[in-house]
Write a structure and sequence with these properties.
- The protein has one helix and no strands.
- With 61 residues, the chain is mostly helical.
Length: 61
């Protein structure tokens, strides 16, 4: 009887756990997309600074 109860409990909880996995995977994908977009913006900003100098040099003498 105890094994049957455990099996029923696992069968009832399985869909809930799968939902958590879907949410976790979605959050991971969103974090990766945000990180990639942030890196691309940073690189584009550096490229603009190289092409269009604003007179703000780090090695002022």
């Amino acid at each position: 009887m105890r094994a049957v109860r455990g099996l029923v409990l696992v069968c009832l909880l399985a869909p809930l756990l799968q939902g958590c996995l879907v949410v976790g995977a979605t959050a991971l994908a969103a974090d990766v997309a945000i990180g990639t977009a942030g890196a691309a913006v940073g690189v584009a900003g550096k490229a603009v600074d190289v092409v269009i100098p604003d007179g703000d040099d780090d090695d002022d003498r």
